[in-house]
Amino acid sequence: MAKFGFYFDASACSGCKTCQIACQDKNDLPVGIRFRRIYEICGATWRQDDQNTWVPEIAAYNISVACNHCEDAPCVKACPTQAMYKDDNGIVAVDPKKCIGCRYCEWACPYGAPQYNKKLGIMQKCDLCRDYLADGKVPVCLSSCPMRALDFGPLDELQKRYGNQTTLYPLPDGDLVGAGWVIKSHPAETKAKELSARIINPEEVKNG
Amino acid sequence: MARQNRRDFIRNSVVAGGIALSAPVWIEKAFGIEAGMAVASHIPRDGWVNLGCPAHNCGGRCLLKVLVRDGVITRIETDSREKDTAADPQLRACLRGRSYRKRQYHPDRLQYPLLRTGRRGEGQFKRISWDEAYDLMASKMLEIKEQYGNEAFHVPYGTGSYSHLNGRWPAARLINLFGGSLDYYNSYSWAAISKATPTVYGTGVCGNQRQDWLNSKYILMWGWNPAEMRDGTNSEYFLKLARQNGARVVCIDPRMTLSAVALADEWIPIRPGTDTAMMSAMAYIMIREGLVDREFIQTHCIGFDKTQMPKGLENEESYTDYILGNRDGIPKTPVWAAKITGVPAATITRIAREFGTIKPAMLYQGYGMQRRAYGEQPVRGGCVLASITGNIGIPGGWASGIALQPGGGPFWSIFPTGINPVKAKIPVFLWTEAILRGPELTEKEGLIGVDKLSTGLKFIWAVASNILINQHSNTNRTAEILRNEDLVKFIVVQDQFLTSSAMFADLVLPACTHFETWGLEDGWKYGEEVFVMPQIVEPYGESQSDFAICAGLAKKLGLAEAFTEQLDERGWTKRLWDEFRQLRFPELPDFEEFLKSNQGVYTVPVEHPEISFADFRRDPEKHPLKTPSGKIEIFSEQLFRMDQPVEIPPIPKYIQEWESPFGPEADSYPLQAIGPHYMSRVHSTHDNIDWLQSAFPQRLFINSVDAQTRGIEDGDEVTAFNHRGQIHLPCRVTPRIMPGVVSIPQGSWSHFGKDGLDEQKNVNTLVSERWTPLAFGNAQHTIMVEVKKR
C-alpha cells in the first residue's frame, strides 16, 4: 500500500491546459467538469510616467490542481452517505452508487476537486487514473505536460526529490488537510502576495 | 465478426496493458455508430495506434497514441517513448491534439457534397451526389478555361490540412495537369520575415538547431510566444532547459503571454508596431557605450558606419548615421524611443547593456511583429542587433530573422504538384485584388512571371482553406467581393466543416480527416523526424480524402492516370516515405516494416546541434554569404536601388504605421488591437470544439485601466469597432496586457447577419487590406479600434 501524489512545478507551468483536456478525454468528461483545473493567479498595478510609458508591477502564474487525495480529506468527512471514501492506496474516490449529489464534499474541499455532474446527479473526481496505476502506467495528465511540469509517484519519494512544500499562494495551507502533493513555487509568488493577487479566471475553472 | 473484433481487442489490450472501453454515448449519438460495426480490412486492428497528429498549421508536429475500438477512436494519448532527452525529446501533443476526438466526431462534420441554392454567402445548400458534383465542377472548369484561360483559376493558400498528401497539394497537382492556375508566392504567416531576412543574410536558413539554445546565456523573447503558437513541438521545453542551464530570458511583448509567465524572468510590455524604435535605441546605447563587436562588424558586415558603405554609396546614410541622428537630427536615444514604445528609457538602456554584454545571446523574434504595416523593419532590425553584437555563427548565439533550421528540412510537402504552365504569380495576400482588377496589376503590386494578367480570377478552388473569408483582411469587404457573381464565376470549397469560407461556396466538397486517410508529416519549422499517418478509421459519411476527391475529378477531366500514377493514398504515402529516405533520412526503415512496428514516428537524435553561418564566421572570405556583398548587409544596396527610401529604407528604421496611436485615426479609434494565435485554435481550425472553447473562450482582452475609463467590467459583452465593421464578444479585463492595447485572438469564425455584415468575433473584420511595402504581405495586426460596453 503506497500513498501516491503529484508534484507540480508552478515555475514551469504555462497554463496551456493540455493536462485538463487530456483528463477530459481519458475520462470522457462533458464541458464544465474538470478533474484537473488550471487557476490563473494574477495581481498588478500599472503606473504611467511622464514619458507616456507604462510600467507594471505584476505577478502572474498558474496552478494546475486535480485532487490532492488529502490524508485528512475534508470531502470524505463531509460526505453524509460515505460515498466519498479512501481506498487502500490512499486514493480518494466516489462510489457512484452511494452518492446522492448533495455537494457537501464540493463545499468542503479547499481545491475544488469534487465535480458535480448535473446529468448523472452525482459527484465525480480525479482517482489518480487508478486503472492506469493498476497497469503500471502513470496518470494521463502527468504524461501530457509539454513543459514537464508535473510528476507523480509515491509521496515519500516525491518528498525526497522535491521537498515538502504543500502550499502555494493563494491556496490554503496544504498541511492542514494533509494534502498529498509537493509543489515548487513560481518566483513571482512573493510579489503575488504583496499585490494581493487573486484567481482571475473563475469562469474557466467553475464546475457546471 | 464484430464479436470477434471485440474479443481480439480485449486480448490485445491486456497484452498491451490497455483498458477496454466502449465508445462514449456522445460519439454514438453524433455518428449513429452501432457497437461492433465491422471495419474494413485495411484499417488496423483494435488497439493503440501510434501516428502523427493531424497536420494543421500549428507550429507543432506531435505523436499521438490513439485507442481504436471497433472502428471508433475512443481515447487519445501522446508520445510515451521511454526516453525523453534533449537530443530526442518526446513529441507531446498540446490540448488541440488531445481534444481531437471532438473534432473527429463533431456533429457538424460535412457528410455529402453540397450545392448552393440561395444567393452566394447566404449559406443555403442542398445535398447532391459525388457524380453530380464532379460533373458540375468539371463542366464549370472547362467552360471557364474556354472563356478566360487558365490564368482565371486559383487554388488559394490554405493550411487547414497540411500533411504531405492532404490539403491543397493534390488540387494544385490536378490543376497543373489541367493547364495551370494563377499561382501565389509567400504566405500569410511569414510574408515580411521571409522577404526581409535574406536582404540581410542572403538566406532564410539562419537558425541553429534548437538543442543549441541550451548554450545560450541570454535570450530576448521578442514578441515570441512558443507556449501558445508552439513554433516547433518542444520549443517551450527547450527554453525551460536553457534556463536550467543558466540563461536569463526577457520577454518583450504587448501581452504577458503564457510564455512570459512560464519561460521569462522579466516581461517588458511594448506598444505593438514600435519594436524597431526600441531596437534602434538599444543600438544607440551599444554604440555610445562601445558594446558592439567592432571586430566582427569590420570583418563580416557592411553598412554599419561610413567606413564600410558599399562602393559608390559612401555618402549615403549608414546605420550609425541613422542611430546617432547624423542626418535626420534625431538621435535614437532611449528617451526618444520611450515615447514611442511605451517602454521606459531606463529599461531600454538596461536591456541594451544586458544584450550587449552577456554572451552568447539570442534575440528570437516572433512572427506577429512582421504581420504589421512595416513588418520588414523589425525583421531587419533584429538581424542587425544580432549581428552588431557578434552573435552570428556561434553556439548559443542566434541570427534572428526567420531562422529556418540548417541541414535541410522540414519540407512541408514533397508531394509532386508538377509544373504550372501559367507563369504568373501574385503575392499570396493579393488574391482579392486579382479578382477585382486582375489585368491592371503590375509589378508594383508584386505580380511576377508576366507583365500583365489576361483576366481577373474566375474560378476558385479552396482546399483546407478558410482564407476566402475568415483569415483574410477586412472581412466585410471580402464578403462583398465574393458575393458578386460577375467577378468570381465559380467557387469550390473543400473542407470538413461548413466554415465561413464554405458558406460562400457554390459547391462544397466534404473532405475526410487525417485519421480517415493516409499521410505523412515532418516537422513544421524544427525537428528531425518524420511521422506516418495510417488510416485508422473509416471516412465519415460520403467524405473522401483530398487526394481521392481530386482523383475522382481527374477521371471526369480525362486526367486520371496522369494524376494518380495508379497509386492510391497508401501507395503515395509509401512513395513519399521512400523519398524521405533519399532526401533527408538515409537510415529510414522500410515502410511496411515501420508500419508493423507501430512506432508512428522516426526520429534522429540531435547530439551536436548545427549552427548556421559557422563557416562564414570562421572565414568570411572563403565562405561568403549569398548577399550581393557576401557579407551581412546592415545596409542593403538592393533595397537602396528600389528608390523608395520612406517605406523601404536600405537600413532598418522605425516607421510610424498607417494606423497608429500617434495618427489622426486614434482620435476616433484610440486602442491598438492585435489578433494573436489562440490556444483553443490553430488559426480558424478547432474553433468549434467545446472542450477548447471552455478552456480558452473567445474574448477581447483589455487592460483594467482602459476598461475602467469605458465603464467595462470583467465578463461584460463588448463591441469592438472601427470604420470597417464591428464585432461583439465578451471581454476579459486583465492586467496581462498593456494599457492602450486590446487583444482579440484571430481565427474565430465569421457569421454574417441579415445586413450582410460580419457580426461575430472575427478580428479580421476590423483589419485593413493594405499590404506591406516590400513583401506585399498581410499587415493584419495593425488595427486601431474603439471598444464600448454593449
Short description:
Chain A has 208 residues and is α+β, with helices and mostly antiparallel strands. Chain A has helices at residues 18-26, 74-78, 104-108, 130-134, 155-162, 189-194, 202-205; strands at 4-9, 37-48, 54-65, 84-86, 92-94, 115-117, 122-124, 150-154, 181-184, 198-199.
Could you explain how this protein is built, in words?
The complex is a heterodimer of chains A (208) and B (790). With 208 residues, chain A is of the alpha+beta class. Chain A has a single domain, classed as Alpha-Beta Plaits (2-Layer Sandwich). Chain A is 20% helix and 25% strand. Chain A has seven helices and ten strands. In chain A, a hairpin with a 5-residue loop joins strand 4 and strand 5. Chain B has 790 residues and is α/β, with parallel strands linked by helices. Chain B folds into four domains: 103 residues, Single Sheet (N-terminal domain of TfIIb), CATH 2.20.25; 186 residues, Rossmann fold (3-Layer(aba) Sandwich), CATH 3.40.50; 221 residues, 3-Layer(aba) Sandwich (Dimethylsulfoxide Reductase, domain 2), CATH 3.40.228; 104 residues, Barwin-like endoglucanases. Helices cover 29% and strands 15% of the residues of chain B. In chain B, the strands form seven sheets. In chain B, strands 5-4-16-15-14-6 form a six-stranded mixed beta sheet, with helices on one face. In chain B, strands 21-25-22-24-23-26 form a six-stranded mixed beta barrel. In chain B, a hairpin with an 8-residue loop joins strand 4 and strand 5. In chain B, helix 11 runs antiparallel to helix 14, helix 11 packs parallel to helix 16 and helix 14 crosses helix 15. Chain B is globular, with a radius of gyration of 26 Å. Chain B starts with a helix and ends with a strand. At the A-B interface, helix 1, strand 2 and strand 3 of A face strand 3, helix 9, helix 10, helix 14 and helix 25 of B.
